[in-house]
Amino acid sequence: MSFERRTAIAIFGAALLFLTGASTFAQETKIGNLTGDAKRGKALYRRYCVGCHGPLGNGLGENAPYFEPRPRDFTAAVFKCRSTPTGTLPLDTDLYETVGRGLYASGMPSWFPLMNQERVDLVTYIKSFSARFHEEKPEAPLAISPEPADSPESVARGKQVYQKMECWKCHGQAGRGDGPSAPTLTDSKERPIVPYDFTTGERFKCGQSNMDLYRIFMTGLDGTPMPSFIDDMKPDQAWDLVHFLRTLQVNPEKQASLRGHP
User: Fold this and answer.
1) Is residue 29 within 8 Å of 35, Cβ to Cβ?
2) Which of 81, 193, 261, 262 is the 20 to 30 Å CA partner of 140?
3) What's the CA angle centered on 79, arms 16 and 84, to 5 degrees?
């Protein structure tokens, strides 16, 4: 589907929601043995989410101007954290996990305090903002190969992959997010966006495990300059890159102990 068609659908959907106040495009959401309810989800959205994402779900809530990156525009149905191929819809479980986990280095907090049923209801209502969930189906999640051993040899190969894939142009040679292209990067709405700084800790935008980082390489972060590398990297190369990037991370507690601080 073309960008123009998606945009037209998003505008139509937002206008229809505004006129009817109803969950026009709500689709069934099932997580395990739980089924979502859009009506309950709407109440939760208005209590917890409307201030940032806005009543129309377009990311234009009253608090939105105070956040960088800006809140997600649900009408476009473009999501960073997915297990599905780039450019496709996320699975219900992807949205459910994002609501619970939050998005690191953004204004989106973790909503783990919500009960599981509440998170499923909220996902159901969020899906109602875009006709894409009515007209399209998510593709199958990308397969993730077993992780090989994290060894010095794997790290060395990963460093070579980092150079070959030109990751340093955005993330910098030391992974601090200060590469030569960093000042010029924008998101899908032409707003400035900052590359991830791998030295800041153990969490990533979409998780914190090695598998989460591998998945980011292969699916990309839609709506950002971070592409999918599934056609450019073999699975073993992606795992080598994961192992190399782990060596760039700084553990504050470990560094403090090395300096003799408590």
Assistant:
1) yes
2) 193
3) 115
**Residue 112 DSSP label:** T
Helices (H) and strands (E) in the chain, counts: 11, 2
pTM equals: 0.84
Distance, in Å, from the CA atom of 121 to the CA atom of 111, rounded to the nearest integer, reads 13
3-class secondary structure, 256: helix
How many C-beta atoms surround the C-beta of residue 228 within 10 A? 18
For 76, the token pair is 């476009």
List beta partners, residue 30: 35
Residue 137, CA atoms < 13 Å, CB-side half-sphere: 2
Whether the pLDDT of residue 32 is over 80: the answer is: yes
Q: What is the pLDDT of residues 164-181, one digit of tens each?
A: 999 999 999 999 999 999
Residue the block writes with tokens 């109440």: 43
